[in-house]
Amino acid sequence: MPNPPAPAPARLNDGLVLIIEDEPEIVDIIRAYLARDGLRGVGAGDGREGLRQHLALKPDLVLLDVKIPEPDGWQVLAELRRRGDTPVIMLTAHDQDLDKLLALRVGADDYVVKPFNPAEVVARVRAVLRRARAGGHGNGGNAGMLRCGPLEIDLDTHQARVVADGASTPLPLTLTEFRLAVYLARTPRRVVSRAELLASCLPEGDALERTVDSHISKLRRKLEEAGVAGMPFSLRGVGYRMVEPT
User: Which residues does 141 contact at the CB level (< 8 Å), separation at least 6?
Assistant: First the structure.
């Protein structure tokens, strides 16, 4: 891993990144690269401190190492997802498809394998932050509300809910799940291939089409828990659409 870059004149007002990592030198390098790009970085050396700082600081994004002490990264990620939809990028020495799929299934938005290029980490941070702030799939789209049956997606507040029988049930979607829901809800009867969803909603991730299936499965489960069965619909060997054609 390269040494930290020389400080560059930059206004650190573009976002706060919480780095939960137990190797101080890695934290220092990432913070230096973030600062050079106008982003603030704050370090936490273990899971307990990371969760405490997440509550106190409300960061725009979390960089989370898997092998941290007390508790480990998987437990921290699960707790962050229970709390809300703060974007999370996992940092890990593992380079196995199973680990990547587990990170995405638990709710990570991206995955970086050590050893990594710090400049690439910053680029991924920027990309995830852009998507989070756009509240959509990266093309901006029309601000306002998307409605697809009982599903309502507020692009301005980055919230989704199910409205049925006079009740409104919030959906605790991750950033990736939200992007997929938005992408499918814009053209709800069009069949969208996994490759298209991967390119449009997970452009910085590893090119594994089955990761789309994992995110769709979690999105469908959350909709089912809110009383909506079957959305999104799958067409074996083809892809997904949000609703069945009438």
Answer: 134, 155, 182, 186
Does any domain span residue 5?
Answer: no
Can you give the CATH number for the domain in which 118 is found?
3.40.50.2300
CATH number, domain containing residue 176: 1.10.10.10
Cα distance between residue 101 and residue 211, in whole Å: 6
Nearest to 176 by CA among 137, 208, 224: 137
Q: Residue 112 corresponds to which tokens in the numbers above?
A: 């970086």
Secondary structure (3-state) at 99: helix
Partners of residue 110 on adjacent β-strands: 89
Q: What's the rounded mean pLDDT across residues 185-189?
A: 85
Give yes or no: residues 26 and 128 share one domain.
yes
Say what the pTM is: 0.56
- Unique residue bearing structure tokens 């998307």: 146
164 vs 21, which has greater pLDDT? 21
Please report whether residue 157 resides in a domain: yes
pLDDT at site 19 = 97
Is residue 28 a part of any domain in this protein? Answer: yes
Total number of domains in the chain: 2
pLDDT digits (tens, 9 = 90+) for 32-58: 999 998 899 999 999 999 999 998 888
